[in-house]
Write a structure and sequence with these properties.
Blueprint: E1 16-19, E2 22-27, H1 28-36, H2 42-56, E3 73-74, E4 80-87, E5 101-103, E6 110-111, E7 116-117, E8 127-133, E9 149-155, H3 156-160, E10 168-170, H4 171-177, H5 183-194, H6 201-204, H7 207-213
Parallel strand pairs: 4-8
Antiparallel strand pairs: 1-2, 3-4, 5-10, 6-7, 8-9
Amino acid sequence: MAFYKIEATLKTGDERLVSKDQNLAFSLLDFLRWSVSDILSNATRGRFAEFIVATAVKLDIQQVRDEWGAYDLETPDGTKIEVKSAAYIQTWFQRSLSKISFSIKAALYWDSLTNLQSKIAKRSADVYVFCLLHHDNKQTCDPLNLDHWEFYVLATQELNLYTRSQHSITLKSLKKLTIAVNYEELNNEIIKKSRYNDLDDNCGNGVNYYSNTI
């Protein structure tokens, strides 16, 4: 007997908890409010950053987010995107603003359709989008305000050729490789960086550097 992957369906929020075939007073919306209202928290902010990028590239948000994909998003034209997020402001007590660094480590892809993991770590996306919640006033920081964000976009090729580290990249290093864009400019920047896909495929997936760094 095979236990196939379950495809999630979009919910309305009105769905109710059920006990003994009776609807309870608690809804899925109640759960969502309870669990993800803290958009500043690291885990929730990361998913919210994915949502921001999804809206910028005009993804169909009626399709449920894939929790286990080899990359975070895929544009209508087929560009695969990995989204990373960071922020100066955290919900917890801080003595100073957080230092900004993003993970760029290659990963072993797990296929949710087959329950098998790849044997070679690599970057599966074509483009990386680094989302920085740059607003640094704790009293007024609002992740819903897209003017509080800036975005740095790199083709995966550029990361594969990045010599300082293959595990993480600082904001200072990002600024040497690309410029920040705002939400309105983000889609065009992703399209521009996706053109790096035309480069040599060996360079694209980092065949040479994996032998030295994995």
